Amino acid sequence: MVRRIRKAEKDVPDLLGRYVYCVIPSPITERKSFGNLGFDGSEVYTMDYRDLSPVVSDVPYRDYAVNEEEVEIHRNVVEKVMQEYSIIPVAFGMAFKSKKLLQIAMSAGYQAMQKARPIIDGRVELGIKVFIPKVKESMDSTQREECSADFLNNLLTVSSDSKRLKLFSDRLILNSTFLVERSAMDGFSAEVGRLKEKYPDMKVQYSGPWPAYNFVDIHILGGKRRGFR
Question: What per-residue confidence (pLDDT) applies to 225?
Answer without folding.
Answer: 40
